[in-house]
Amino acid sequence: MKILNYIVVFLVVFACKEQQENVSKMKIDQGKKVEVQGHRGERGHSPENTIIGFKNAILKGVDVIELDVVISKDKKVVVSHEPYMSSLYVLTPQGDSISKAEEKQYNLYQMPYDSIKTFEVGLKGNIKFPEQKRIKAYKPLLSEVIDSIEAFVSAHKLTPVGYNIEIKSVPSQYEVYQPQPGVMVDLVMQVLNTKTIAGKWNIQSFDPAILNEMHEKYPDVTLAYLVSKGDFKENLKLLNFTPHIYSPNYKLIKTKTVVDTIKAKNMKLIPWTVNDSIAISEQIHFGVDGIITDYPERVLIYNNL
């Protein structure tokens, strides 16, 4: 019985100590404002990469909406994370599920946009995000997203938001699920050049070829380099320039020293995708410039302390 009592006391003391450390960390973080980017809108609670999801993220107070673009058969810039219809959350026009085995047969690069738009992307939900609301939605065009968001912000007198636009590109998929980097870059820029959102957007990509092409053709564009692994110095060797933003998997940012080293290269540091509250607090404590998250409210709470 005494042993049990000792265990209980130990657990209580440990819990109190952990709580004190968390409170202490929160105090350290007070006053530090980080840029909050809603990953694919606010994927934790709304269908990803949809106009309703972006609007919901804006209503929560994000600074930037993060979104992905691919290219359709008729050369339209479509907002979608995959260049195909994902079995995770897409339904056919008839309302049927798509199996994992057949999802890549629905190749967006081989489908005209009028056909793409008929697929349902919000009613199935997403098993990875059980709190996500089921809302009727479709894959919009980049031009439509910008027009809708700008009108929404203006109508509701909200603070203007930025756009972090990821060009989805994988070398092994050139001419299969996407055009060559040069063509892809030009198609995206054709859309952006028609919009009055100067200074409010940037391009990001995991593919160095996309970033190098963009920098060469459009040197004034703000660029972010997405990385999932590796040493940042080695990663940067794949670029012909130093990007404005370095955007790694947050698990690569383990100490403040790493943050300081990267920022010393005159790059902003915006990690992805940080959803856990403890990890969010830790990244803020390290001194990152922004956070990409599926749950904007979990980051905003620190900005409001």
TrEMBL record:
Q: Specify the superkingdom.
A: Bacteria
* Biological process annotations from GO: lipid metabolic process
Signal peptide (from-to): none
Pinpoint the GP-PDE domain residues. Answer: 34-303
Q: Which InterPro entries match?
A: GP_PDE_dom, PLC-like_Pdiesterase_TIM-brl
Q: Which residues form a coiled coil?
A: none
* A Pfam family annotated for this UniProt entry: GDPD
Entry's Gene Ontology molecular function annotations: phosphoric diester hydrolase activity
Q: What is this protein called?
A: Glycerophosphodiester phosphodiesterase
